[in-house]
Amino acid sequence: MTEIQKVAVLGAGTMGHGIAQLAAQAGYETLLYDVSRPLAENGIRKISENLKVGVDKGKVRLEERDAALGRLTAVDRLDLIGRCELVIEAVPEDLGLKRTLFKQLSELCAATAILASNTSSLSLTEIAAAAQAPERVLGMHFFNPAHLMKLLEIVRAYQTSDATVEAGRAVGARMGKQMIVVNDRPGFASTRLGVVVGLQAIRMLEEGVASAEDIDRAMELGYGYPMGPLRLSDLVGLDVRLAIAEYLYKELGSDAFRPPQLLKQMVRAGKLGRKSGEGFYRYPASSR
């Protein structure tokens, strides 16, 4: 593997811009790609806002903020990422979309470039199968918000080489992450466990066991969760939570992953959580 100096992050949304911030703060020259320049530039604006909060709280020095922003470039042309040694995709959770993208990436980038997916549940083995030199494909599953959460889940596809895993771990260490390495199974470790808790919390709300606030408080105060499962579902997006649950239910066949009717109804009603302004809780426009 060649030394990683330049990183591209594909998708400037919630996860993508957070990952790009991590890369830039770790000292990598970083390209943030989205399908239009305004979207990519908006991602960099959000990074700037995050860094300002860090400066205000005394966690980021002014010179560190300026250096990180100086390493970031917004792009809207996929061909511009061809010289990057590491590409991390953070596009929507659609297997067909990711397979198409990884086929393109493997043709654009050098054969030694590492191609990583931030997928939280989809098969890395199927994604890697679409790429040339699939041994350089792995999962780098960050958590929201990426610039604050400590965990990075490294996922080994069937084809992933040991050298690729070690390169991914080295990048994670430079970003200051604590890591686990898991094999490619539906939901990996973190999503599989987290989704079970989240779906059970929705069922409890559906059955009238307790209010959303009290269900969340039970896990926050009783088990040390930093955020209750219903509020976390709002943050993730109820449409995303539903799609992951449907995928895991199909792959694993366990009723633990069967989507609750309440979740389906809320998604149909457009109550998607924080991004729509309402889910299990209501959110002011300033917090979306």
CATH C-level category of the largest domain? Alpha Beta
CATH superfamily of the largest domain: NAD(P)-binding Rossmann-like Domain
Number of helices: 11
* Tally of domains: 2
**Could you tell me the strand content as a percent range?**
5-15%
- Listing every helix as H and every strand as E from the N terminus to the C terminus, the arrangement reads EHEHHEEHEHEEHEHHHHH
Q: What is the end-to-end distance?
A: 40 Å
Q: What gyration radius follows from the Cα positions, in whole Å?
A: 19 Å
Shape: globular
For the residues shown, what is the average pLDDT?
A: 95
CATH topology of the largest domain: Rossmann fold
Report the strand count: 8
What does the largest sheet look like? 8 strands, mixed
Features:
47% helix; Rossmann fold; 2 domains; 288 residues; single chain; N-(1-d-carboxylethyl)-l-norvaline Dehydrogenase, domain 2; alpha/beta
